[in-house]
Design goal:
Elements lengths: L2 H24 L4 H7 L4 H29 L1 H20 L4 H29 L3 H32 L4 H4 L1 H15 L13 H24 L4 H23 L7 H4 L2 H18 L1 H12 L4 H20 L1 H8 L1 H19 L8 H29 L5 H39 L7 H11 L10 H36 L1 H4 L13
Helix pairs in contact: 1-5, 1-6, 1-8, 3-4, 3-5, 3-9, 3-18, 4-5, 4-8, 6-14, 9-10, 9-18, 12-16, 12-17, 12-18, 12-20, 13-14, 13-20, 14-17, 15-16, 16-17, 16-20, 18-19, 18-20
């Protein structure tokens, strides 16, 4: 491959990952505008985000084997093309159903694009030093997309409209596809590819049923037949999935590796990272806009400390790792992550940004340490011959954590907000207080039948959203600290992982 073609391949992979990662953060600041434009409920917003992360995590396990079997370039190009088409569908959505379908299709496409990036770069750069440099740049590029997402999304929502956040993917996708078509060399290793269709179907069924059940709980309650039925299907699918994976000759999930204490603890931490770190984007946007009253663009800029601190920390991670050792940085990262989220559980509608911003930055530092440290430790804990499978597992669990985090924490947030509104309204509602409070929280407009002026109602709604955010932040923070405990208990198994990260996944 010539130098120019290699540069084109690198640019294509960077742009593809940028586009797929941008979709996670750019939609966060557009959620209130989408809710108002499509007259959606809060649970519906969970599906706009959840459909993308659900499909991204569910299909990520099989994305690598598809590339190994059918050609890495072919599968990656298919992912970029599908992502571009799905973005157009989302931009043209005139109903919530169409938007959720477009988001789900984006998730399937993202599952083909993100994991395939490492395989393509590994094939293009056989020299370890060159490979480490381009993979490090790829990781930093992903962090940049997380920084730009809320700011760009807020600007587009306020000036053009919410559909524009999907339209930006059309030129990006076309450019990435063209560069990839020219620069990426085709490669395949079908004899090494996992072949486990039953496991893949069961994993999708498990995540889909679990996510549906958690979101349905916010609509109908935890004891509702639909909620219990979905959770029961999820439990059965999980049991069958584990049984199938134990018998499969080439499973999509390395169940035997998860039997190792060190490997299992690191993957639990990866799940916690997605649950309390990545899913927080969904709730930060709602807090800043609905509880504090900022516009979409202002909220985007105010979320920037999270991603700026994450990017800066990731850039110096190699030097920190060489000096302090990987286990210490990993525990510190999850500790900062959990502590920052717990502190955010004290947020109020009138909390000064001078308090909010440092906690956002602290969360970013924690994620900047936890993301590369977890990736490097997983690679060190797994046999080298199975590093690809180990990487796919770590990514899938992190994305699964984000999916479940958005669903569960969103439900807890809605329930607490409704309770706050119901208690505050009391006898002031002419109609049912519960019905009025639910309408107010989920549609964030003025409920009909309130015996109070609008100016008196708005502070109650802001307080309700703040109370819901506080509960979600506390639950997320507790899981972050639980990861610290798990990692410390498994410290003897991970204490040898002290080499600096050279090929870290930062998507």
């Amino acid at each position: 491959m010539s130098f120019s073609r290699r540069n084109a391949a690198v640019a294509a992979v960077y742009l593809g990952t940028f586009m797929a990662t941008l979709a996670i953060s750019i939609v966060a600041v557009a959620l209130p505008a989408i809710q108002k434009g499509l007259k959606a409920e809060l649970s519906d917003l969970q599906w706009v985000v959840g459909a993308y992360t659900l499909c991204l995590s569910a299909f990520m396990l099989s994305a690598g084997p598809l590339g190994d079997r059918h050609g890495r370039k072919r599968v990656w190009l298919a992912g970029v093309g599908l992502f571009t088409v799905a973005s157009a569908i989302s931009a043209m959505a005139s109903s919530l159903t169409m938007l959720i379908a477009g988001s789900a299709l984006q998730g399937v496409a993202g599952a083909l694009v993100v994991p395939g990036a490492l395989s393509i770069l590994t094939q293009a750069f056989p020299d370890p030093g060159e490979r480490a440099a381009v993979i490090g740049g790829w990781s930093s590029f992903s962090a940049v997309s997380l920084i730009l997402g809320p700011m760009l999304g807020g600007l587009l929502v306020d000036t053009v409209g919410w559909s524009s956040i999907f339209l930006v993917n059309l030129p990006l996708g076309a450019l990435a596809f063209g560069l990839g078509l020219f620069g990426i060399a085709e490669s395949a290793d079908p004899e090494q590819a996992a072949l486990d269709p039953s496991g893949q179907v069961l994993s999708v069924l498990f995540l889909g049923a679990l996510t549906y059940g958690l979101i349905k709980a916010g609509e109908a309650g935890w004891a509702a037949p639909a909620t219990l039925g979905a959770l029961a299907v999820a439990g059965l699918a999980l049991i069958l999935f584990v049984a199938v994976e134990r018998r499969a000759a080439r499973p999509v999930l390395p169940v035997d590796l998860l039997g190792d204490t060190a490997f299992a603890s690191l993957n639990f931490a990866s799940f916690a990272l997605g649950f309390c770190g990545y899913s927080s984007l969904f709730f930060f946007s709602l807090f800043l806009q609905q509880a504090q009253g900022w516009s979409a663009s202002a909220a985007g800029w105010r979320m920037a400390p999270v991603f700026a601190a994450m990017a800066v920390t990731a850039l110096v991670f190699g030097r920190l790792s060489a000096r302090f050792g990987l286990p210490r940085l990993m525990v510190l990262g999850y500790g900062l992550l959990g502590a920052a989220m717990l502190a955010m559980g004290l947020f109020t509608p009138d909390m000064p940004y001078g308090v909010v911003a440092p906690l956002f930055a602290l969360l970013g530092i924690g994620m900047g340490l936890a993301v590369p440290a977890t990736g490097a430790a997983v690679m060190a804990a797994a046999p080298r011959a199975r590093s690809g499978s180990a990487s796919a597992t770590m990514n899938a669990l992190r994305q699964g954590g984000m999916t479940i985090g958005v669903a569960l924490l969103g439900t807890l947030m809605a329930d607490r907000a409704v309770t706050t509104m119901t208690t505050a309204l009391g006898e002031a509602a002419v109609a049912s207080p519960v019905a009025m409070a639910t309408l107010a929280v989920r549609h964030h407009d003025m409920p009909v039948g309130l015996a109070m002026p609008p100016d008196a109602f708005r502070p109650l709604l802001a307080r309700a959203f703040a109370d819901g955010f506080d509960l979600a932040a506390i639950v997320a923070g507790l899981l972050g600290l639980a990861a610290v405990i798990v990692l410390l208990l498994a410290g003897r198994r991970t204490a040898g992982c002290r080499r600096p990260a050279t090929a870290v996944d930062g998507s």
